[in-house]
């Protein structure tokens, strides 16, 4: 069925993560019949990353559970997965556009999609390359870390963000001594309001994790064999460590985009059709920045499975030349110990928040407002609040801040009438 | 290998082989069964793998636990007594032939 008389060279998708896979899947689902090549630098076929810092690290699931599709899926859908191949050069302009892999293979293409993802930001202090200093991004990273934790006693986690806290919880569950070092004054600073930050600090403390807040790391020290032994902090103290987990954020992979001369900020700049500054090239997932759905003058990067999947669907629609799917409410989750955080909406730019429920019960939520309009929720072990706000945001309904804290009423009961003007209508083609 | 029989919202029927221990969601997604979105990959976070388990199997699969129960209260498609999130059903030999309808919307 593939390969018409005027055989198209098809689409090359660079990056075989969640976004890349979804793009391929959505192209086929949309009737795309030309070749699809999905090229990835890793040896594994597309797999789920979120469990790597959660259940995989805790040891409750294994590599087999991580694969996003069965091997037969790719043959059945005629998706050519080129694994363990990094694209080093792209030549998109000529009539016979092609890419060159690090293994010397040439891949021809007509349309190009960049789903290159991101890489962990590296620790740059002296000793950062000692054995035992780990990052958490790939199956290989997580597998190696899991091995090391089996023989570890003391773990220092650098960075109090989601990856750091999830890894800290998993290490603590194994009974290890765990200290989280966070350079700012509070945890998850970039993404949540102070009550959530403080809740997580208390909750992890209660489970035996220690914290060094407001401290930077100045050096990592090791023994004569090159194994890490201590982490030195900006106040001069040294923490014993046989494993150091670095979770200090990610950097979008934009080298190829730059090579192509595409406009980039922190990530590859795309519009609400997932088009780069060269409209024939699309990009999706962690490697991109995009217009904020309600404040399009601001570019935002969304590092989430949900964004990878939904932006990839948009990118596929652009390649297919059909209307993009409707915008969805951004959402995110984090599992730390027995605490499930679910986030709906984007809280950036909030000017007011309401705490609903008592954080001491470990089941509560925080609703965020901007100019009195509901914009997001962080729900801890509180799925009803998460689901209600997610739906309210999708419908363009608000929940007045004056009543949102009243736990005697369910949020879905407190929800106001949908306002069509507030619905997420971004990107619908005129 | 136990089999799972899934009725897609468009009427199509899918029979897929499951590995013991794998979830119904995982098995369906890996084989490309449409209608089960499962954005969170089985973390009980998104409620987009909603199915209706056939009556004959509901005692074998059991009912939703507390957290799943709360998520099911707010799914897009109607909740029914036999509603489950398919990421929370692990396949066993006893579940061979498990039949379910995929919810029309996720």
UniProtKB/TrEMBL annotation, chain A:
Sequence ranges assigned to domain FAD/NAD(P)-binding in this UniProt record: 12-312
Entries under PANTHER family matching the protein: APOPTOSIS-INDUCING FACTOR 1, RIESKE DOMAIN-CONTAINING PROTEIN-RELATED
One GO cellular component term: cytoplasm
Domain Reductase C-terminal: 331-414
Essential cofactor(s): FAD
Protein name, as recorded: Ferredoxin
MF terms in GO: oxidoreductase activity, acting on NAD(P)H
Organism, scientific name: Cryobacterium glaciale
Pfam families linked: Pyr_redox_2, Reductase_C
Automatic annotation (TrEMBL), chain B:
Pfam families: Fer2
Gene3D superfamilies in the cross-refs: 3.10.20.30
2Fe-2S ferredoxin-type domain: residues covered: 2-106
InterPro entries: 2Fe-2S_ferredoxin-like_sf, 2Fe-2S_ferredoxin-type, Adrenodoxin-like, Adrenodoxin_Fe-S_BS, Beta-grasp_dom_sf
Example GO BP: P450-containing electron transport chain
GO molecular function: 2 iron, 2 sulfur cluster binding; electron transfer activity; metal ion binding
Keywords: 2Fe-2S, Iron, Iron-sulfur, Metal-binding
CC per GO annotation: cytosol
Cofactor(s) needed: [2Fe-2S] cluster
Record-stated family: Belongs to the adrenodoxin/putidaredoxin family.
Record protein name field: (2Fe-2S)-binding protein
